């Protein structure tokens, strides 16, 4: 029986033959195994790939590669890591280019992105890390994508509302998230708002998915909606910024301490220094707006975004 090898399998086999590290060999073999047609004619090939994969994993461990993160696992930086998921040609790479200093490859043909590309997005006085990921489609999906999505603090789904297949794309990606038990995307982003008729297409999409996702329309090309996008990501990460001031001194703006929403004055003090939390007597609360200036608060008081705290120890 013929093997009927797919183009995706052939790509993975080429990557295996050109792999320079054990980690690259393991990743390529995993792709070969996942894309190899499963039938009686490939049983020997499946067994051979499994044998080589087992050996490659052992060799990787011998060389200490088990201490290194997989290539698709990007070290988290900034206030949070946000992974961009989406179908081919949704404009994810262009979005990352518009919002960060990263330079992922941007082209008008599908599957331009093959590796995760990080970039730091500025939102007011904090930075949020965006990860541009390869596209997801029924034709092909990188086998490591679910792990990369699961590792991020959250993900957003980026689509082109003008694409005739947008509904099928959203449903397919949603099914992958559900099947792989990945937390669902926090936002649905309709990109390419600059295209003719895009606003109407997005409105129709919003009617269908309003109860399932918060939705936002943007144009990575013109910049329309990008400031709202920055704010939406910060809010979706569920974070608050806390500033400090020395007793008896005027507040001098500086880098905030980033905490999860719901944290207390005591936890904010511990973020500054563990001794502060242990020795804290009380704190005074100030606001940039001037509201509640100098209000005495207890350790258990829940902080809000942009609170200014004066610790007394």
Keywords:
five-stranded mixed β-sheet, Rossmann fold, 3 domains, Ubiquitin-like (UB roll), alpha/beta, six-stranded mixed β-sheet, 18% strand, 313 residues
Rg, alpha carbons: 24 Å
Structural class label: alpha/beta
- Major beta sheet summary: 6 strands, mixed
From the spread of the alpha carbons, the general shape counts as globular
Description:
With 313 residues, the chain is α/β, with parallel strands linked by helices. It has helices spanning 7-18, 22-35, 43-62, 92-99, 145-151, 166-179, 198-209, 226-236, 265-272, 274-279, and strands at 81-85, 117-123, 126-132, 154-159, 187-190, 215-217, 239-244, 257-260, 282-287, 295-297, 307-312. It has 3 domains: 7-67, no CATH class; 81-236, P-loop containing nucleotide triphosphate hydrolases (Rossmann fold), CATH 3.40.50.300; 239-312, Roll (Ubiquitin-like (UB roll)), CATH 3.10.20. The protein is globular, with a radius of gyration of 24 Å. Helix 6 links the parallel strand 4 (154-159) and strand 5 (187-190). 36% of the residues lie in helices and 18% in strands. The protein has a 6-stranded mixed β-sheet, sandwiched between helices. It has a 5-stranded mixed β-sheet with strand order 8-7-11-9-10. Helix 1 (7-18) runs antiparallel to helix 2 (22-35) and helix 2 runs antiparallel to helix 3 (43-62). The chain contains 10 helices and 11 strands.
